[in-house]
């Protein structure tokens, strides 16, 4: 029996063109691959790094689907079904819209794979595949098998050491699909399991792929303490309130934290209220970012444009803040109502969703009618913020500006410059490829 697990790209030739981005391996797929019993041949095909060979004779094809690649995933699914393979769709999009997904596949996995996948494979072997698989209870995260990292295409990724230690998030921001997919809880793996997995990793740098590495601060403290003897360096995603817990932040630093991705989202109190993200205290942003820098942690701040309280000046105000607060990297997104989120429900009820082409749900296109500007202005403003932040002038100013903080300058000059230039390169690629409204970077 042969199984293929596929992560869709944007089109057939995406892998050929996508040379510039900081590519990370598809951890979801290697995690699912580890659930498949020995004796079944498994191939992992990541369309971001290699094209799909439809002539490979797979019995079962599993495709993980985020909303923006749903049309592509459906095309791949249709192709394989036409060749006689049974196709399974899973991930956030089919979990939110299973009735849409089932039109393109033989079975949909709703929610997390553990348990459901094993049942599905048994049913397939018996010739008794059901249309929908889900778990009655959220699966335990104890004793999870290690992801099949051996299946990654060799040399294709910036960093193979990615790991997930938790699922879910204790918060419930209106635009975020995490709670819908993982349940409104935060669950974590036992510290011993995580440390064992990390001890098997070669290389010094690790990326934690969790939506919030400090979702349970007590657990995070235990984990960080346990990590210290391994001398690793790590990057991850955290909520901003990490700066309010000195012990937690100190342990993060000691355990090797060198970079955090933080969803700052907005610099407007009204927008923060709209999102339902009380833990983001805007008045403390600048001070908090300085605290992180003082702990030797680089910060990528993420912002979203298009909230009802955002007017046409929001782009300039936000960019000024990002530059002024010395963010090392920034990400700007157009507010996107992903199916399954509270935001999607709200905008649907208000009849403000103007585009249901899922390929445009990529955080660069405006698929709804914003309250205080046009959809076009929103897209353009977002593209403008990207262009300004990653212009050559801005990069040089920000990187050389670090010389006033000598310790940081000596430690991070090269990585921050390299990362900024890599982002710039990736953005230029995306601008050519999609409608991020980026134009060319100066
Ligand atoms: S804090 Fe982050 S992961 Fe948690 S719900 Fe909000 S956006 Fe999602």
Automatic annotation (TrEMBL):
Pfam families: B12-binding, Radical_SAM. Residues 155-376 form the Radical SAM core domain. GO terms for cellular component: cytosol. Keywords: 4Fe-4S, Iron, Iron-sulfur, Metal-binding, Methyltransferase, S-adenosyl-L-methionine, Transferase. Residues 1-131 form the B12-binding domain. SMART domains: Elp3 (SM00729). The keyword Iron applies. The keyword 4Fe-4S applies. GO terms for molecular function: 4 iron, 4 sulfur cluster binding; catalytic activity; cobalamin binding; metal ion binding. Its cofactor is [4Fe-4S] cluster. PANTHER family: ANAEROBIC MAGNESIUM-PROTOPORPHYRIN IX MONOMETHYL ESTER CYCLASE-RELATED, BLL1977 PROTEIN. This is Fe-S oxidoreductase. It comes from Acetomicrobium mobile (strain ATCC BAA-54 / DSM 13181 / JCM 12221 / NGA) (Anaerobaculum mobile).
